[in-house]
Structure formats: structure tokens, C-alpha cells
Design a protein that fits this description.
The structure is a homodimer. By secondary structure, chain A is of the alpha/beta class. Chain A folds into 2 domains: 123 residues, Rossmann fold (3-Layer(aba) Sandwich); 165 residues, Response regulator (Rossmann fold), CATH 3.40.50.2300. Chain A is 44% helix and 14% strand. Chain A has 16 helices and 13 strands. In chain A, strands 2-1-3-4-5-12 form a 6-stranded parallel beta sheet, with helices on both faces. In chain A, strand 9, helix 13 and strand 10 form a beta-alpha-beta unit. In chain A, helix 1 crosses helix 2, helix 9 runs parallel beside helix 11 and helix 12 crosses helix 13. Chain A is elongated. The relative contact order of chain A is 0.12. At the A-B interface, helix 4, helix 6, strand 2 and helix 7 of A face helix 4, helix 5, helix 6, strand 2 and helix 7 of B. Strand 2 of chain A pairs antiparallel with strand 2 of chain B. Chain A binds a DNA duplex through helix 2 and helix 4. Chains A, B: One of its GO terms (molecular function) is DNA-binding transcription factor activity. Chains A, B: InterPro entries: HTH_LacI, LacI/GalR-like_sensor, Lambda_DNA-bd_dom_sf, Peripla_BP_I. Chains A, B: This is LacI family transcriptional regulator. Chains A, B: It comes from Labedaea rhizosphaerae.
DNA sequence: ATGAAAGCGCTAACAC
DNA sequence: GTGTTAGCGCTTTCAT
């Protein structure tokens, strides 16, 4: 039993006694040759076990890979657990599907700085989802001579972007709390930089955050509460590296342990807020009577929990990113798409108790 | 302003006055040249804007794409909605990540027969998830000279497979219902073939089903209930093309409208079962007193609903498929991995009411 | 440690 | 309608 070298377009042509062009045409331009000849070519191909033009060779020649690369902040498997990331992914998939493009998920380990996967990906462009401004993978992507679209963060000079107005969105939420009368608030936020800092984040860390979305939201909160006469330096901000309900719960615990007087917990994601909700329950704090809690994103579980939050259209974001990347027409000028958000007033926010109520009951 | 042709490895070599080999080595085999020279190469690359070796050209040369193709039954976007498919995806992603391989999702439209995306995908192998035996995309995959692993269905001679023992799994469930005393049952199943048939599926259609998993489950139910003295020809089986809770609800409605006497609804997926549950509620049928309902898969929502079902390890399936494909070692003999399943007895199954109870209440 | 030569398998001008 | 020519950009023996 011998190992036959696999047939190639050239060997097929030789076998048939025609040129390689003809064989190529048989596959790619049926109208360029007689149906009869084409039939013969395909027939012989079958006989020889020729599987059709090699996609990689074709890509090299045509300079088209037929796929879009997707780079996520986290391990791939994380993305499949986070509802927001998932909706984004679905949107991207929708766009790819519509254009008949493959979706190449780039394997990334945020702990290690191995960017070879970015260099190895045979794709026509990249979508980068929500990474820190100093992410080495992002740098690797930008070094490649293919179009790129960044979703959410960071904003990069000359690179297309789709996102929301984070400042305006959370300012609306802040305004709501301020109007309700909250002056002693605490904040639970996501990772601010690539290093793990599970604990309080002082102003300096807030200001130098590498995750622009978190940074923008904190800055907007700062502005809003400062304008309402609150000294931002006194507002506790607790940061968590991992994005999970457990993180939200522990962050809430950490904050409440040290600042028993806060009347509202502003969380920069619904996941964190749901965790905070759980912690509040554990402590027998009534929400919203004893404590208001707000989230961000508008995921299904948040809605179910009646969370006061900001809804952002994640699926549309994904689709917009995909469309932007695939839309070869008016590429050139850097483009930016800002999607609308909507304040959702749920049942987890209300007026704070007065000092009296605090001591003598509602 | 002029468009400079992008730098290539060759142009870089020319600029430096060294051979292409040396430049290549600078990237791929740092130990093959002096640190000093390497530094100079990389430095010049930066200056010229050379992004490093082109991944496609490299793939052509090395015959390695560094990515795994994934072919799903449904639209890509569907996969991000179905919890079972999602868990599978996550498992595959985990395996890919571990091996530093990209995950290339092949865009497929099950309605159209466009298999070009399969031919265009630059991948080192394919994972095919749960497709009908006559799926043209599957045929396209098998025609390509790369290793393939099929998950669930269909079983293909000589192709690696990972799955569960569908017959045994559902037989266990059937046995449970039989033991409880159910003799008048109905079945809700998923798509049996590529054509849309939203309605009753007669025995002939069951027998000629192209989705082997559904076929096997129906056959096992047939066997179990026949052995219990039930005439399978009289058991209504309702099929749905779309896999959604809405489908489950409408299928349940269709079945119950025509067969008011069934005491149990066996669904071949949790999604369908959750829909059936909703329809039962709508009809003010108490579950399980008036009607037992069972599912299949063991998704989180099913557990939450207390569904009696069969749990299968979807994440492990994905991981196993990935590992099998990536494990180049003992390829050769076709391999088959069968994962264990577990019967979950929830609160949606109980003894059927007796005829008396039916008329006079519990 | 570095270079020369030989393709990987294919497609796109352009000629006939 | 079919063939000729010329690479796409890279890696890899094998010499030196």
C-alpha cells in the first residue's frame, strides 16, 4: 500500500492534458469554458480524489482569506459565559454570515503575552472587543496591514470604532440617584488595568486606568457627583479583576464593611450589580429601602431582577462592528459609530432613608 | 501622497543586504542567528513597517493554518442562543485555546446549499456538530484532505466521532415513565430531515430520518414502549423544524389538541420541553399531576424549572472533539468517544392520573 | 552563522 | 474557449 501524493490543480491539468488555467476556471469561472470540458474536469477530479483548489494557496494568490478575526479581552471560554459579550458575538456572527465570511476566533490568554496567534491568523481584518489601551494583542493587530474595528475600547487614532457614549449614559444614571437624594454612594467597577487589584481604587488609579470604558464611567460619575456637592475623593470605589457575580458580591461586602453609611451602590456592570444584590440580601439589607443598587448593560438577568440600569444594544454593536469591517466601500476616513443607550429605571433604586429612618426604622 | 507597496520579507532582506533565510530566521528561529543581527533585522522591520511574515504565505509553505474549522447545523448566530450548542462551543474553544489554535466558525446557511465557505476555510481540520447525514456541507468537509471529527451525528464510516449513547439515555427516561404507569404518551421532537415538516411525523418519516440522533431516540422510545405493550403506531410524534421554546409550545398544543388523553409528553430537548411546559400552563394543566413532561440535555434553565430530563456533558463533548482533532498522536484508527449521561428526575414527572381522577379531580 | 535554490498550489493578465 | 507566463510571500533543505 503506497501513499499517493495528493492531487493538485497542476497534476489534474496534466492528467487531462489541459492547462492549469482551464482547471482553475472549471472551479472559479464556469462560464469561461464549455460545459462539456468542465464536466470532464470535475469528473476527473473526482476520480483522482482532487478536493478542489487549496484554500490557502488561493488566499495567498487572491489576497483574501474570507474570514474575519475576532479578538476578545478574555479567554474565549469566558466570552461564552458573559451575556453581554455573547450578544456582541452573535451580532458579529450575523454580519459575517450575511457576507459569507468566516469568523476566526483568535485564542488569547490575557495572563500571558503570547501574540503569535494574532500573527498566525489568516484573516482579512480584525474586530477587537474591549481591550486595555496597552494590550499587546491589540498592538499586534494594529501592526498588521489589515483593516481593524475596535469595539468599545480603546479609542485609537485612525482606527474605526463602534461604541456608546459611556459618559452620557452613566451620567444619566448618576443624575437619577442625585435627584433621588443620594449623596453617600459607593462604586463597584471592573478591572481598571491589566494587573490584578482586587480592592479599593484610589483616584490616581482611576485616572490612569487603561480600560477606557471604566475610566470614562468613573470620570463621568466624578463629574456628576462633584457637581452635586459630593467630594469624589471620599467616594469609595472598589475594583475587581474577575468579572463575575461572586466578584460583585465580594466587592460589595468589602465596600459596605468599611462604609456602612452608603445609600447607593453604583456598579459598572449588571453582573457586578447582581452580585451586589446577592450580598445585600445576605446582609438582610432591603433593596431599595436600605440600599439602592444600579447596574450597566441591560442583560436579561438584570431585567429579570428589576435592576435599575443602562441598556446598551450589544447585538447591534456586534453587527455594526462586523458591517463596518466588511463594508469595503467607504473605508478610508476613520469612522465611528455611537449607538444609543437607554436608562432603565427598575425597582432597585429609590430615595435614601433619612438619618432618622436609619435609626428608628422606616 | 503615494501608496508604498507593503514591505515583504524579501524587500526587508534586500534592504538589509542579507538573505531571506536570515530574516525568516529572525522571526522563526532566533537561535539561528546572532542576537545583534536579529536586533538589526527587527529594528529595520519596524522602520519599514514590515508586519512580520504573512500568515497565509507561511501557511501555504508549512501546510499548517493554525486553526480548526467548526461547522454547525444552524446559522452561526443560532449557536449563540442555544445553551447546549453554546456549551459545546465553549468546550471546543477551551481545547483550541489550550493548543493555541484559532477557531474558525464556518458561515453556513442551512436553507441554501452554498458550500463555498467550507472550501474557502483555511483550516487544519474540521469539527462538525450535529448535522443530517445528507448535509452537503458535511460532504464538502469530508472531501477535503484534512482530519475531521463529527460530534453527535451522523456516524460516518472511518471518521472520528464523539457523542453519547442516545438510545440508552432516552430508554432510561422511557423506563421511568413506564414504571410510573404511563401508557398514553406523546413525543415532541426536533427536525428529522432537511425539509420543513412542522406537524405529525408518521412512523415512516421516523424511520427514514436524516438526523440520526432524533432517529435513535425515537427508535429507542419505540422499543421501550412497544416492550411495555404500547402500540407505537398509535403514539403521536410531533416534529418541529425550528428549535425554540415557541416551537415546543406550538408542538405541544398541536399534539394535545388531537390527543387529549396523553398523560406524558416526551420531548427530545429541554428547549422543546420548556415550551411544552409553558403551553401546559397556558391550558391550566398541572404538571406533573395532569401531565408529565420530560426533556433532554440538562441545560441550566431546565434545572431551574425542575424538569425531568437527561443530562449530557456538552462542554466535555466540545472539549473531547477538539482534543481528538488536535491530538495528532494516535490518529489513524478511527476513534470514538462516548460520554456518559445522567437521568435527572425532576418535578415534572409523576404517576399519571387514573381515569377516575381525570373525571373527578385528584 | 548565513546564503542559494527550490518550490508550497494557486490565479490573473494577457495572448492566441 | 484555452494556454503561457509570472508571480503571491514564505520556509526549508543543503551548501558554505
Amino acid at each position: 500500500m503506497h501513499v499517493r501524493r495528493p492531487a493538485t490543480l497542476a497534476s489534474l491539468a496534466a492528467e487531462l492534458g489541459v492547462s492549469r488555467t482551464t482547471v482553475s476556471n472549471a472551479y472559479n469561472r464556469p462560464d469561461q469554458l464549455s460545459p462539456e470540458l468542465r464536466r470532464r474536469v470535475l469528473e476527473t477530479a473526482r476520480r483522482l480524489g482532487y478536493p478542489g483548489p487549496d484554500p490557502v494557496a488561493r488566499s495567498l494568490r487572491t489576497r483574501k482569506a474570507g474570514a474575519v478575526g475576532l479578538l476578545l479581552t478574555e479567554n474565549l471560554s469566558y466570552a461564552f459565559r458573559d451575556p453581554a459579550a455573547l450578544a456582541f458575538l452573535e451580532g458579529v456572527a450575523l454580519a459575517c454570515e450575511g457576507a459569507g465570511q468566516g469568523l476566526h476566533l483568535v485564542p488569547v490568554n490575557p495572563e500571558r503575552e503570547d501574540i503569535t496567534a494574532v500573527h498566525r491568523a489568516g484573516v482579512d481584518g480584525f474586530i477587537v472587543y474591549s481591550v486595555p489601551d496597552d494590550d499587546p494583542h491589540l498592538a499586534a493587530v494594529l501592526s498588521r496591514p489589515v483593516p481593524t474595528v475596535v469595539c468599545d475600547q480603546p479609542r485609537v487614532e485612525g482606527v474605526d470604532r463602534v461604541g456608546i457614549d459611556d459618559r452620557a449614559a452613566i451620567a444619566q444614571l448618576a443624575q437619577r440617584l442625585i435627584t433621588l437624594g443620594h449623596r453617600k454612594v459607593g462604586v463597584l467597577c471592573m478591572r481598571l488595568a491589566r494587573d490584578r487589584n482586587d480592592g479599593f481604587a484610589a483616584i490616581d488609579r482611576q485616572r490612569t486606568a487603561h480600560f477606557h470604558v471604566q475610566k470614562a464611567r468613573l470620570a463621568a460619575l466624578n463629574e456628576a457627583f462633584s457637581a452635586a456637592g459630593v467630594d469624589w475623593a471620599g467616594v469609595p470605589v472598589v475594583e475587581r479583576f474577575d468579572h463575575s457575580q461572586a466578584s460583585g458580591a465580594s466587592a460589595a461586602a468589602q465596600l459596605l464593611d468599611k462604609h456602612r453609611d452608603v445609600t447607593a451602590l453604583i456598579c459598572t456592570s449588571d453582573i457586578l450589580a447582581l452580585g451586589a444584590l446577592a450580598e445585600a440580601k445576605r446582609r438582610a439589607l432591603r433593596v431599595p429601602q436600605d440600599l439602592s443598587i444600579t447596574g450597566f448593560d441591560g442583560i436579561a438577568d438584570a431585567e429579570r431582577a428589576g435592576l435599575t440600569t443602562v441598556r446598551q444594544p450589544m447585538l447591534d454593536k456586534g453587527r455594526a462592528a462586523g458591517t463596518l469591517l466588511l463594508d469595503t466601500v467607504d473605508r478610508g476616513r476613520p469612522r465611528e459609530i455611537t449607538l444609543p443607550t437607554e436608562l432603565i429605571v427598575g425597582s432597585t433604586s429609590a430615595q435614601p432613608r433619612t438619618a432618622e429612618e436609619r435609626w428608628f426604622g422606616p
